[in-house]
């Protein structure tokens, strides 16, 4: 239990640093910007109480907002992400079989489930984030293209980081 | 017997019914607690977003904040080390330009002329140099953070330029740092004019998020712009007149706006490499604003 807490704290700090110092400067053709930091919310343990989940999502969003100078924008998108996460998990996963599978990681849940999980949640988050930022219907077409391409970029990075940890666990 | 009749009294059944509905409500809330928590957190996040973004930036949840500001300053130290050569080249070039303007590089005709210069020209614009410690170019609304604040004399609304052209406008001022709304922002509009013919227009950033392209619109139909002509700030803007904004890259813009001439403008400043900027303090701005406010009152 305490190991999981420490692991998540390290993950939080690491992902925020990667996001604001590295990924913030990356963009492909003004279309695709990755937001890898949401991986923290995706990888929280299954038994996380809802209240804690929402609070963590809110804090993570505000932390990113502090660096991006957009108070409330990422917090809003992250809280929505947390809600979609709860819905997705309650629909696709049975509660009984989870005693030995504490976290929804790639190595524990398999590629197919994790890919669907990551892609659906990222799409929701990015759709809300970009539209809230632009806030104009006249640019909706361009915004949607950005949402899809950015989601692909983000999920790609998530799978890469998942594969990194998959290897280290199999060795152990 | 008497106890039974007591239980059957309408008041008690009402109370039992009432507590049942209360319990049902509690069960309902705990069953769908995810949704209620979602609503609570979402509303509070939206309140923060709406309150602090459309009008002014939050004074503490942004990069003038001590923690994030310090982290950015550290990172900037590292980054500026990597691009020292380029900065040196730029500074050397700027030095050369400044030397050209030195008194010693002019031939002095008479002493009288100096006197005239001293009394007739009162300095209107003052420049405060600052380093960019945080910058973004890939979002719809971009901001930069600079390392000077109210202590250095910076105030909200001042213009910001760099050696190659217009950069933006100061929107939040902290004691040691300020946040600048970049040219690459949905709500930045700059009054600009064609360098040759002085025809006025408005400059905005294009909506395809390209950090090198903008749009000049509302130019009079009588104007004859040429490809490659310089677009500069006009006398009406908060910048000194004649600061370059960009060069005309296309005479008929696709994303047309209004019924007058539209043209695509290649932005002069390369925002991805911005390192040092100058904040322009207009010494007569207060007087101008005061007069205009008075005129409005008189009408």
What attributes does this structure have?
heterodimer, A: 172 residues, 7 helices, 72% helix, globular, B: 299 residues, alpha+beta, Thrombin, subunit H, 3 domains, 25% strand, elongated
Report the uncertain regions of chain A: none
Per DSSP E runs of 2 or more residues, the count of β-strands of chain B stands at 12
**How much of the polypeptide of chain B forms β-strand, as a percent range?**
25-35%
Helix coverage percent of chain A: over 70%
End-to-end span of chain A in angstroms? 20 Å
Number of DSSP E strands of chain A: 0
Order of helices and strands of chain B: HHHHHHEEEEEEEEEEEEH
How is the CATH topology of the largest domain in chain B named? Answer: Thrombin, subunit H
- What structural category characterises the helix and strand content of chain B? alpha+beta
Largest sheet of chain B: 6 strands, antiparallel, barrel
Distance linking N and C termini of chain B: 89 Å
What is the average per-residue confidence, as pLDDT of chain B, rounded to a whole number? 78
For the record, what CATH class of the largest domain in chain B applies? Mainly Beta
Largest interface: A-B, 39 and 43 residues
Describe the structure.
By secondary structure, chain A is mainly alpha-helical. Chain A has one domain (2-171). Chain A is built from seven helices and no strands. Chain A has helices at residues 2-22, 39-42, 50-68, 73-92, 106-109, 111-134, 140-171. In chain A, helix 4 (73-92) runs antiparallel to helix 6 (111-134) and helix 6 (111-134) runs antiparallel to helix 7 (140-171). Chain A is globular. Helices cover 36% and strands 25% of the residues of chain B. By secondary structure, chain B is of the alpha+beta class. Chain A binds chain B through residues 21, 24-27, 30-31, 33, 50-51, 54-55, 57-58, 61-62, 65-73, 75-76, 78-80, 82-83, 86-87, 132-134, 139, 142, and chain B through 33-35, 37-38, 40-42, 44-53, 57-58, 61-63, 65, 67-68, 72, 75, 136-141, 143, 145, 179, 186, 207-211.
